[in-house]
Design goal:
By secondary structure, the chain is of the alpha/beta class. It has two domains: 2-95, no CATH class; 101-217, Rossmann fold (3-Layer(aba) Sandwich), CATH 3.40.50.11810. 52% of the residues lie in helices and 13% in strands. The protein contains twelve helices and six strands. The protein has helices at 2-9, 25-29, 33-46, 58-71, 78-86, 91-98, 118-123, 128-134, 157-161, 163-180, 190-202, 212-217, and strands at residues 53-55, 88-90, 107-115, 138-142, 184-187, 208-211. The strands form two sheets. A four-stranded parallel sheet has the order 4-3-5-6, with helices on both faces. The protein has a two-stranded parallel sheet with strand order 1-2. α4 packs antiparallel against α5 and α10 (163-180) crosses α11. It is globular and about 50 Å long. 40% of the residues are buried.
Length: 219
């Protein structure tokens, strides 16, 4: 809902097709490419007529923009996959790089640090856009972590296959968060936020996780 509030405040019309499903990254990462193609075909059908597709997740955005082309390389759907990829944007990417905005009129009081989701940072190269947006949020004090580019350890199926390593990585990330003295940790990937909030809660930390859209929707 945060994304919807931001876009409507900016004067854009938002549609949310209820027929949409998962982006297909879990089976893709697990090596089940036939199953991933079935999900991707569904997405191409649902969003085929959309002018622009905006994702709230760097992981989902990377799947549609980058990995679907790998799935359908040399197949009849390759052109459709590339067309959808060209019209798909991660949330902060769309606001900053497509709309040319850095100030969306948000106000949020507090001290916060930002966590870069791996796919948004490494696959989509979106290090600057979310920070540009947060730097213009009135009342927000943004403090960077020392280990700002370190993975939180979730990694989708990685957390299931290697739970002890995943937890250790998440604990290291939470230690970096604690060092900043922040009250909030913000990210543009909900899967990372789920991982971090679970560990923070178990540690008895007062730090709360927030999606970038939640902060930008505040006024």
């Amino acid at each position: 809902m945060g994304m919807v509030r931001v876009f409507e405040r900016l004067g854009h019309q938002v549609e949310y097709p209820p027929a949409q499903t998962c982006c297909g990254q879990p089976p893709f990462n697990a090596g089940y490419w036939d199953e991933a193609r079935a999900v991707a075909r569904r997405q191409m059908e649902v969003f085929g007529d959309a002018e622009v597709v905006v994702s709230a997740s760097g992981s989902c955005g990377a799947m549609i923009k980058i990995f679907n082309a790998m799935l359908f390389q040399g197949r009849p759907e390759e052109a459709r996959a590339k067309t959808l990829a060209a019209r798909t944007f991660e949330f902060s990417e769309f606001l900053v790089n497509r709309l040319g905005l850095s100030d969306v009129g948000a106000r949020f009081e507090g001290r916060a640090t930002f966590h870069d989701g791996c796919h948004g940072l490494r696959e989509l190269g979106l290090k600057k856009p979310p920070r540009q947006l947060l730097q213009h949020v009135r009342g927000l004090q943004l403090v960077e972590m020392n280990d700002r580019e370190t993975c939180c350890g979730f990694g989708g199926t990685f957390a299931v296959k290697f739970p002890m390593i995943s937890t250790a990585m998440g604990e290291a990330k939470c230690a970096a968060i604690a060092e900043t003295g922040a009250d909030f940790v913000i990210s543009n990937d909900s899967s990372c936020l789920m991982q971090l909030q679970g560990i923070l809660d178990k540690q008895g930390s007062r730090v709360q996780t927030l999606h970038l859209a939640q902060v930008l929707a505040s006024a």
